[in-house]
Amino acid sequence: MPTVEGLQVGEQLNEGKTKIIYDLPSEPGCVLIVSKDRITAGDGAKAHDLKGKAEISTSTIAKVYEFLTLSGVRNHYVRRQSPISFVARRCSMVPIEWVTRRIATGSFIRRQKEVPEGYVFSPPKRETFFKDDA
User: Fold this and answer.
1) Backbone phi, psi, residue 85, to 5°
2) pLDDT tens, the chain, 134 aa long
3) How far apart are CA 44 and CA 26, in angstroms?
4) Residue 113: CB atoms within 10 Å
5) What is the rounded distance in angstroms from the CA atom of residue 106 to the CA atom of residue 93?
6) Engineering a disulfide at 54: which of 15, 35, 38, 103 sits with its beta carbon 3.0 to 4.6 angstroms away?
C-alpha cells in the first residue's frame, strides 16, 4: 500500500486543480486531502506552480475548520496531517464555489462588459457559483 504524507493510503478518489483526495483504509470513513503548489485562473485555463502555496492553503484550511469546530459547527475536518495535508471525514461536497477578485479580468469582464479590464475592486469582489468541473 502506498504512503502519502506519512499515511498508508488506498485508492485515489479524486484529483482537482488544487487538491488530491485519497481513501484511508486504516481510518474507515476518512480521507486524506493533499494540497498542491498549484494556482489557477480562468477555470484552470491558466495554471502554474507556486512553491509554498500548498502549505499556505492547508494552514488556512486547518485554522478555519478548527475555529468552526471550536464554535460548535460540525464539519468534515479531523486533523492536520502534515504541512500540506489534512484528514477529513468522507462526505459529499456541496457544489458551491466562492471566488474573490481584486482585479477585474477574465470571465468577470466577459460577464460584466461595463467594467473595464484591470479595474481594482476595493474591497475585493466576492462571487458565488455552482461548481461544475465537468
Assistant:
1) -150, 160
2) 788 888 999 999 999 888 999 999 999 999 999 999 988 766 556 778 889 999 999 999 999 999 999 999 999 999 999 999 999 999 988 889 888 999 998 889 999 999 999 999 999 999 999 987 65
3) 33
4) 7
5) 26
6) 35
